[in-house]
């Protein structure tokens, strides 16, 4: 039977192996000992393969931030009240959030998509409204989303990737905002990786030790409730996910299909990346991992994704902020790769 999410499994754009080879050859000729720029070399080569250009550049950056409320917040799993999700949507739109500042600094396009929070448009029409209801259902009692909510959330992410494509973006960053979404991300990771709640539950926005223990117990109950339905990634997402996590999944798959490199942010974005890869393995070619979040379970998610993040700054904010902070590094890697002289051009003697 055809569903409205058949697009999820459609082909991913192949990488350009000729451009990769050309960039690799160029790296060998630049005026430095081979390998002396460390991981910056591989980064530029990876962008060459993704961009189909021997000399890639990453100027146009598109940031989609998705917000959604979570029914699981009722279980007392966050250090902050649920109202913060909607309050932060306003803050994003008014320019006061971390990601607002970072986007401005990077001259990146920032769009904010409200998928279902207490936020009311009011005087902030710049927030894109894709209202799927007042947040997800409490997945300690029932599936987080209905089938149609899941489809709409995935599509909202794909639409964001389409807008990035139309804007000529060379990099897509997906951010999220959702009080209690580290519980969702942890539950998703447990279900997909067969790990225990003790391994994945962490402080999130700042739970103390007792709070983390309670969160792990809630996740254990959740996994028991849904146990017989956790064999398929899309269904795992519908049952344990959030609107913003599903939107990120759709955005990552959509970006990879369009051939836009994705810079993955922290813990929650990585959970979405894992689902995206489980649904459509080719997505992995288009993912780069920006940073190692301070949320302890991120280590396990990164391992499962064979990811080596660029930075480890102790950040645990979300919003796409860790990814945004890594953009200058990528820009510099590409600038070095494209702008340095070769040994022949500079008249510098090569290795003996
Ligand atoms: O991205 C991360 O690594 C990250 C780690 C911890 C918390 N967060 C952010 O904090 C919120 C979720 O935390 P919590 O404690 O309410 O589950 C949500 O809005 C996330 O963007 C984000
Ligand atoms: C204030 C605040 C800002 C955030 N941004 C992303 N998650 C967040 C959680 C809180 C609590």
Automatic annotation (TrEMBL):
Organism in which the protein naturally occurs: Ferrigenium kumadai
Keyword terms, alphabetized: Cobalamin biosynthesis, Glycosyltransferase, Transferase
NCBIfam families linked to this entry: cobT_DBIPRT, PRK00105.1
Entry protein name: Nicotinate-nucleotide--dimethylbenzimidazole phosphoribosyltransferase
Residues annotated as catalytic: 319
Origin organism lineage: Bacteria, Pseudomonadati, Pseudomonadota, Betaproteobacteria, Nitrosomonadales
Family: Belongs to the CobT family.
Keyword Transferase assigned: yes
GO biological process: cobalamin biosynthetic process
Record keyword Glycosyltransferase present: yes
Pathway: Nucleoside biosynthesis; alpha-ribazole biosynthesis; alpha-ribazole from 5,6-dimethylbenzimidazole: step 1/2
Catalysed reactions, as listed in the record: 5,6-dimethylbenzimidazole + nicotinate beta-D-ribonucleotide = alpha-ribazole 5'-phosphate + nicotinate + H(+)
Record-linked InterPro entries: Nict_dMeBzImd_PRibTrfase, Nict_dMeBzImd_PRibTrfase_bact, Nict_dMeBzImd_PRibTrfase_N, Nict_dMeBzImd_PRibTrfase_sf
UniProt xrefs under Pfam families: DBI_PRT
